Amino acid sequence: MDDRIDPESYIVGEVISGCLMTRARRISRVVTNIYDQELRNHGLTASQFSMLIMIAKLGGASRSEIGRANFQDRTTLTRSLAPLLKEGWIEELPTKGGRSRPVVISSAGKKLLSGAAPAWREAQRKASALVGNNGAEAIIDIAENLPREDEPT
């Protein structure tokens, strides 16, 4: 019998035992599903809710500013904004001189966020129970300390 380690088996075992990306994506899918289920009755996905919150927080920002704040490339951001614009939950304000148009949350978007707040709170409760207090604090801490695109890592 050959005593050499099969490279394929080695990488599989290494990834299975401790890959941060695999674990983070699994956690993200489960947590996102919790929020999707709670927000569904409001016609929102977790991603749309998150994007509306980001736009409301920024208070009128260019697409590139929103993308940087949300760690999204231009193509992904455009896809994310399209349904929000179509539903009238956000709008792009006209500007003079051809400068980028600021994206703002509309009155309908503000009303939607207000109505969806109890569903978000329930999702938050469920997700927090799933990951525990230490897990929730760790997730928030990690997210708050991620380097921005223009910062050195």
UniProtKB/TrEMBL annotation:
**SUPFAM superfamilies attached to this UniProt entry:** Winged helix' DNA-binding domain (SSF46785)
Stored InterPro entries? HTH_MarR-typ, WH-like_DNA-bd_sf, WH_DNA-bd_sf
| Residue ranges constituting the HTH marR-type domain according to the UniProt record | 17-148
MF (Gene Ontology):
DNA-binding transcription factor activity
Please give the Pfam families that the UniProt record associates with this protein. Answer: MarR_2
Gene3D superfamilies noted in UniProt = Winged helix-like DNA-binding domain superfamily/Winged helix DNA-binding domain
- The entry's protein name is MarR family transcriptional regulator
Q: What organism is this sequence from?
A: Rhizobium grahamii CCGE 502
